[in-house]
Specification:
The structure holds two protein chains of two kinds. Chain A is an all-alpha fold. Chain A has eight helices and no strands. Classes of the chains: A mainly alpha, B alpha/beta.
């Protein structure tokens, strides 16, 4: 009798339907949280930049010289932009072809974010960049790479 | 002085009709005083200049126990050159080293053209280069100032940018190199001033030397409309992620136009170097002289309100007295060239520029044990009384000519005066003094006359 009572209780209890209520909370969409990032030293910046553009390491001797050049100019934005544009004038840098960028802009954008910012772009970022490339037929991979290299986010890690 | 009274009365008259308005810097009024000149060039004749070989013109007489006196700085000072043991000049082929003194550039020495304070004092802190330079640009003795640390109190660059509402390219610091924390002198870390009011900076021997050739010369110039516009649009989008975090690549608040102008200057200077058009002094065989040559290029291009340039070659005196004499002679040559260039090649600055010259500190009276190729003893700078003896020279509009102020028994002037004096020339003395961040003894040298 006792066993029957327990079984009945279990059956009644287990059959009780749970009630779920779903809703949508307001969420403020912020840009990528970069507050915890640190500034690169000139040596870090130049080393990474060189590796990104030449796909090989900068020699120690070159690094010392390039760092001195950055130090010799007060406005670091001017200094970095000038050194980067000097690299861009070097036929030895390795850039994606324009054809590959135009054929698959999404892959190009994702690869650029990964290469320069070491992260995946958000959907909004990806969409904006793809639209920009598609709507600017004169923009080249070099222009895009230059924009990434002089962006503030590239200066931080 | 009557001239000073006139200037003060002029300032009062100008103040009486000034209409107040709010400047972007938050000031209610425009500059509070009248300007004596629109441009100031300060030469930090640095590296540690011994008084005996400069102002006192004792040559070898009060250093090497040889009775040979004379003036080896004849662009700056009046006096005859030594006739014996000449080692400070250039070396014609097959002749004794340094036997040929460098020809004078200025027919009238600067002490005749302007005012000399022959006995100024570096009155506080140790006589080290960085603290000396920091005092020279901030008017504050950073007795706790360390290397690799920006000046604690605001620099004259920051005062000028803030109180004169000057753009970044109006204010330049030209360093003789990147060692000894020199690049840190273009602004302080003071929370009310700092990098937003900084001077632009070049160490031109590096920027335009072999390293600059390798990493800057021939940089790509993007088309301003067809290429830079879309690049900047992408950059602005990418930077949106960072704006909220408040992080950006360090900069000096140059506008986009100023940044483009600086890049154009860099490109043009490499071109002028290639074509031998850079206006180096007639003899340019050390770093100070090339630094001054590049400084003339900066003056010609930007016509800054304030330019500070530092030299340092005389510091070779730690190990070679002969080298020190050569550097002292070349420092004078550099100053002569700079003043001559301003007066003859830059019409906008001619008769509208005050130049000041001051060593950051002196050198010891007693030598160290090191001897050079002439068996002459070297000298350090260890904060003895002699190493606190410096001079300040001024020349330009509204600076009394042929005037000496002070003597060994009656020293007049302090190393910290430079900032207040520059502020006085540019009409912002009361603002600078009102900020209360210069040495409490600092005064305009014009007020010490």
């Amino acid at each position: 009798m006792l066993a029957f009572g327990l079984l009945l209780g279990l059956l009644v209890g287990s059959c009780k339907e749970e009630q779920y209520t779903y809703g949508v909370e307001d969420v403020l969409i912020q840009p990528v949280d970069l507050s915890g990032k640190k500034a690169k030293t000139p040596e870090q910046f130049l080393n990474i930049l060189y590796a990104n553009l030449y796909q090989k390491a900068m020699s120690a001797n070159q690094l010392v010289k390039a760092t001195d050049v950055i130090t010799s100019i007060g406005d670091k934005q001017v200094a970095y932009e000038t050194v980067i544009s000097k690299f861009m004038n070097d036929p030895n840098i390795i850039l994606p072809t324009e054809e590959s960028m135009r054929n698959d802009p999404e892959a190009f954008v994702k690869e650029s974010y990964q290469r320069f910012f070491v992260r995946v772009p958000t959907e909004a970022e990806k969409t904006w960049m793809i639209n920009f490339i598609n709507s600017h037929p004169d923009v080249t991979p070099e222009h895009v790479y230059y924009a990434f290299a002089i962006a503030n986010e590239y200066y931080f890690y | 002085m009557k001239r000073r009274e006139f200037l003060k009365k002029s300032a009062l008259a100008a103040g009486a009709i000034t209409v107040p308005y709010i400047l972007p810097t938050g000031r209610l009024f425009a500059q509070s005083g009248s300007q004596m000149a629109e441009h100031v060039v300060l030469v930090l004749f640095a590296g540690g200049v011994r008084h005996q070989e400069s102002i006192l013109q004792r040559y070898l007489a009060e250093s090497q126990d040889l009775d040979i006196e004379g003036n080896i700085m004849y662009n700056m000072l009046t006096g005859d050159a030594p006739e014996l043991k000449v080692v400070y000049g250039t070396t014609p082929a097959g002749q004794q080293p340094g036997i040929q003194p460098i020809s004078r550039i200025l027919q009238t020495p600067l002490d005749k053209q302007g005012t000399l304070f022959p006995e100024v004092r570096f009155s506080k802190a140790g006589t080290g280069h960085f603290v000396g330079l920091s005092t020279g640009v901030s008017g504050h003795y950073g007795v706790t100032q360390g290397l690799r640390q920006r000046p604690i109190n605001p620099t004259i660059f920051e005062y000028v940018r803030r109180y004169l509402n000057a753009k970044a390219t109006d204010v330049w610091f030209v360093g003789n190199g990147i060692g000894n924390s020199t690049p840190l002198l273009n602004h302080s870390d003071h929370p009310d001033f700092g990098y937003r009011y900084a001077a632009n900076f070049f160490a031109p021997n590096v920027t335009f030397g072999s390293k600059g050739v390798e990493f800057l010369k021939g940089f790509k110039v993007y088309h301003p409309d067809e290429e830079l516009v879309p690049i900047r649009e992408m950059q602005a989008f990418l930077n949106n992620s960072f704006n909220l975090a408040g992080k950006e690549i360090p900069h000096l608040y140059n506008t986009d136009e100023e940044k483009a102008d600086i890049k154009d200057f860099i490109r043009t200077t490499f071109e002028r170097l290639e074509n031998n058009q850079v206006s180096f002094p007639p003899v340019t065989d050390n770093g100070d002289l090339s630094t001054i040559g590049y400084t003339t290029e900066i003056l010609r291009w930007f016509k800054p309100k304030l330019t500070v340039v530092n030299m340092s070659s005389v510091d070779s005196c730690h190990g070679s007295y002969t080298s020190y004499l050569k550097s002292l002679h070349r420092g004078d040559h550099a100053v002569g060239h700079l003043w001559n260039y301003i007066q003859t090649q830059i019409p906008e600055m001619k008769d509208n520029t005050v130049m000041m010259i001051m060593p950051e500190h002196g050198r010891n009276y007693e030598p160290n044990p090191i001897t050079d190729e002439n068996d002459w003893f070297a000298f350090d700078h260890d904060s003895d009384a002699n190493s606190r003896r410096i001079f300040t020279q001024m020349v330009g509009p509204n600076v009394p000519a042929n005037l000496r102020v002070g003597s060994e028994l009656n020293p007049v002037g302090d190393a910290a005066d430079t900032v207040v004096t520059i502020a006085d020339i540019l009409g912002i003395k009361q603002d600078v003094l009102g900020a209360g961040l210069v040495d409490f003894n600092a005064m305009s040298l014009f007020d010490r006359i």
